[in-house]
From TrEMBL:
Protein's name in the database: Uncharacterized protein
Pfam family, one: protein_MS5
Positions of region (Disordered): 55-75
InterPro entries reported in the protein's UniProt record: MS5
Compositionally skewed regions (Basic and acidic residues) per UniProt: 64-75
């Protein structure tokens, strides 16, 4: 992992039930085949009080270019 950030204040949601995690990492497997190695994963955890179920959703994509100044994860 290169960087990790938590967002627990999404629209006043409770951290014990809902959170978003942003992870910046280097993908060593992709590097071996010449693909992007600097990546960002976003994982969202939420709890539905009515059903009592947790949901985890995630996605991964290439990190923004290093000269991007708007991104929190820019190097």
């Amino acid at each position: 992992m290169v960087k990790l950030a938590f967002d627990t204040q999404v629209e006043g949601l409770n951290f014990t039930q809902n959170a978003t995690v942003y992870i910046r990492y280097k993908d060593s497997c992709a590097a071996r085949v010449g693909k992007d190695v600097d990546r960002i994963a976003i994982v969202r955890r939420s709890f539905d009080e009515l059903t009592g179920r947790f949901t985890v959703e995630g996605q991964s994509s290439p990190a923004p270019e290093k000269d991007t100044k708007d991104s929190e994860f820019a190097v």
